[in-house]
C-alpha cells in the first residue's frame, strides 16, 4: 500500500543498539555488550585515538567486518520502520544512534546517523567523508588529498558534537509522534530528546525496549519486548489507527 494524499503529523523515530541486537550486532551496556569487553576511554574518545590510533582502527575494523558479514542483515524491526516510512501519509524521520547501515538496507531513506557511520571514513586533513568498507590502518592515504595518517573512522566519540543536530531539533519541534526504540537512555543529547519533545509540543511519546530505559518514566507510553516483535506490532497499529 502506498501513501494516501491526506497529510498526517510527522513522526520521529530514535533508534539505538537494541534494534540491531537480533541482527547479530552487540549492544553497548547489556551484560554481554561492547563496554563489558573494551574500555570506552581507549576506543571511543578523541584522546584514545590520539594515544593509540592502531588500537582504535582494530576495534572498528573488527566491527566493520562483522557488519559486512553476509550473514548480517535487517531484522523485522528494521523492516517495519521501512514500511512505516513508505506507508505513513506524512514525514517519517529515523534518527539513529547506530553506526550500522541496517535501516538503509531495510529501505529507509529519510535517515540521520547522529553518531556517524561505520562504513565511512573522514580525513582530518581535507575534511572529506568517504565510503570505506574494508579495514582502515594508520598507513592508509586519503583518496582525496593523498595525505597519510589523516584518516579516522567517521564516528562521533564522547566529547564530540553529534551530526545534523539542527535538523534533528527542527524535526523534534514539529513532530506529532516521538518513538524511542532499543536505547538505554544513557547518552546525551539523544537521551534528552523525549524531554525536549514534551517541553515544546503535544506529541505522543512512546518507548519500545527490551526493558525500561533510564528515562522510561518520561514517556507517555511504554512497550517492552524484543524489537523484532514490538516494532512490527506498533507499526501495524500506527498505520491502521494512529496513536
Ligand atoms: C533491546 C534488545 C532487543 C537489547 N530489542 N531492545 C558528563 C561528563 C562527560 C560527558 C557528559 C556528561 N554528561 C553528558 C555528557 C555528554 C556525553 C554523554 O552523554 N555521556 C554520558 C555517558 C553521561 N555525550 C557526548 O559526549 C556526545 N556529544 C555531546 O554531548 O556533544 C555536546 C552536545 C551537547 C548538546 C547538544 C549537542 C552536542 C557524543 C556521544 C557519542 C556516543 N558515541 C557512542 C560510541 C560511538 C559509536 C560506536 O562506536 O558504535 O555511540 S557511545 C555508544 O552509546 C554508541 C551508541 O550510539 C550510544 C547509545 O547507546 P544505545 O544505543 O542506547 O545502546 P545501549 O547498549 O546503551 O542500550 C541498548 C538498549 O537496547 C538496552 O536498553 C537494552 O535493554 C535494549 N535491547 N536487546 C529491544 N532485542
Question: Could you characterize what this model shows?
Answer:
The protein is α/β, with parallel strands linked by helices and 243 residues long. Helix content is 33%, strand content 18%. The chain contains 9 helices and 9 strands. Strand 7, helix 8 and strand 8 (204-209) form a beta-alpha-beta unit. Bound molecules: ligand BJW. Ligand BJW is lined by residues 16-18, 21-22, 27-30, 33, 44, 97, 99, 115, 155-162, 165, 182-184, 186-189, 209-211, 213, 226-227. Residues 16-18, 21-22, 27-30, 33, 44, 97, 99, 115, 155-162, 165, 182-184, 186-189, 209-211, 213, 226-227 line the site of ligand BJW.
Topology (SSEs and partners):
Blueprint: E1 11-15, H1 18-21, H2 40-43, H3 46-51, H4 53-67, H5 76-87, E2 92-96, H6 102-106, E3 111-113, E4 116-123, E5 129-131, E6 151-155, H7 165-174, E7 177-181, H8 193-200, E8 204-209, E9 221-224, H9 227-241
Overall morphology? globular
**Average pLDDT score:** 97
Largest sheet: 6 strands, parallel
The spatial strand order of the largest sheet comes to: 3-2-1-7-8-9
Strand content: 15-25%
Strand tally: 9
Please report the number of helical segments: 9
- Please report the distance between the alpha carbons of the first and last residues: 20 Å
Oligomer: single chain
The low-confidence runs, each spanning 5 or more residues with pLDDT under 50, are none
Note the run of SSEs as H and E: EHHHHHEHEEEEHEHEEH
- State the share of residues found in helices, binned by percent: 25-40%
Radius of gyration: 18 Å
**Small molecules (ligands, ions, cofactors) in the structure:** ligand BJW
Task: Classify the secondary structure makeup into a structural class.
Answer: alpha/beta
Amino acid at each position: 500500500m502506498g501513501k494516501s494524499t491526506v497529510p498526517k503529523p510527522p513522526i520521529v523515530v530514535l533508534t539505538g543498539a537494541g534494534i540491531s541486537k537480533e541482527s547479530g550486532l552487540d549492544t553497548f551496556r547489556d551484560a554481554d555488550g561492547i563496554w563489558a569487553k573494551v574500555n570506552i576511554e581507549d576506543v571511543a574518545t578523541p584522546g584514545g585515538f590520539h594515544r593509540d590510533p592502531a588500537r582504535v582502527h582494530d576495534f572498528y575494523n573488527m566491527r566493520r567486518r562483522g557488519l559486512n558479514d553476509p550473514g548480517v542483515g535487517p531484522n523485522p524491526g528494521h523492516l517495519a520502520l521501512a514500511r512505516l516510512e513508505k506507508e505513513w501519509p506524512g514525514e517519517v524521520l529515523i534518527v539513529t544512534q547506530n553506526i550500522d547501515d541496517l535501516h538503509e538496507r531495510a529501505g529507509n531513506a529519510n535517515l540521520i546517523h547522529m553518531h556517524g557511520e561505520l562504513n565511512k571514513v573522514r580525513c582530518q586533513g581535507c575534511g572529506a567523508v568517504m565510503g570505506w568498507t574494508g579495514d582502515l590502518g594508520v598507513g592508509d592515504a586519503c583518496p582525496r588529498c593523498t595525505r597519510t595518517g589523516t584518516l579516522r573512522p567517521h564516528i562521533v566519540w564522547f566529547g564530540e558534537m553529534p551530526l545534523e543536530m539542527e535538523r534533528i531539533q527542527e524535526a523534534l519541534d514539529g513532530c506529532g509522534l516521538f518513538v524511542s526504540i532499543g536505547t538505554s537512555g544513557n547518552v546525551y543529547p539523544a537521551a534528552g530528546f523525549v524531554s525536549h519533545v514534551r517541553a515544546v509540543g503535544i506529541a505522543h511519546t512512546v518507548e519500545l525496549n527490551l526493558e525500561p530505559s533510564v528515562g522510561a518514566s518520561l514517556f507517555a507510553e511504554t512497550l517492552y519486548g524484543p524489537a523484532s516483535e514490538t516494532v512490527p506490532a506498533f507499526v501495524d497499529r500506527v498505520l491502521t489507527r494512529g496513536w
